Amino acid sequence: MEQKGQSSSDPVTALIVRYVRMERIKDFEEWALEMNQVVKGFKGYLGTDIIRPRDHSHPEYVIVVRFDKYENLKSFMESTQREEWLKKSEEMTVGKMYVQEAQGFTPWFVLPDFSLPLVTPQKYKMALLTILALYPSLLILSTLLSYLFHGWPRPLLMLLTVLILVPIMTYYIMPLITRLFRFWLYPKDTAS
């Protein structure tokens, strides 16, 4: 399960894709909330995001689970608690569950309009696009905040900048950058 070149102490994310039966969406939503309570009890747990379907005629859920390091994710993925909860979801879902693990900034580069995550882009491409997106955003936001909160200590200003910028990068800027540079990140996919 550990990927080549992956350090066991780096944060890791599992992307789990499930197709839910139309008549069982409410049940699946309740199941996902309860499952989240189970995963919170595991060592190294950092958080869960549920990406709900945009098209209700194609109810595909993407569950993103983050852990501080690979060993802790593996412990959860191989646990009997997870296995028991997955069995409870089987009658609510269609087809096999799809799971992909990603490290670092890789989840920023998943195309939002794709049913299944693609092969991870090359690291140098992710690094260049992250710099391209991060530098101007950081420059603008930090300049604005230092003007608005003149006199605040620099470490506090940096903390405020990061607290504002990371969600903006995650939910708005990086999905836009990924779509704009899709041809470069996923060159084999441009024909589709």
Helix-strand blueprint:
Layout: E1 12-20, H1 25-39, E2 45-51, E3 60-67, H2 70-77, H3 80-89, E4 93-103, H4 123-148, H5 154-180, H6 182-185
Antiparallel strand pairs: 1-3, 1-4, 2-3
Helix pairs in contact: 1-3, 4-5
Overview of the structural elements:
The longest helix has 27 residues. The protein is built from six helices and four strands, in the order βαββααβααα. The protein folds into two domains: 93 residues, Alpha-Beta Plaits, CATH 3.30.70.100; 67 residues, no CATH class. It is α+β, with helices and mostly antiparallel strands.
Q: Given this structure, which CATH class of the largest domain is correct? A: Alpha Beta
Quaternary structure annotation: single chain
Number of strand elements: 4
The second-level CATH architecture of the largest domain is: 2-Layer Sandwich
**How would you classify the helix and strand content by structural class?**
alpha+beta
Low-pLDDT sequence parts: 1-7
The proportion of strand residues reads: 15-25%
Q: How many structural domains does the protein architecture include?
A: 2
Please write the string of helix (H) and strand (E) elements.
EHEEHHEHHH
For the largest beta-sheet, the strand count, sense and barrel status come to: 4 strands, antiparallel
Briefly, what is this?
The protein has 192 residues and is of the alpha+beta class.
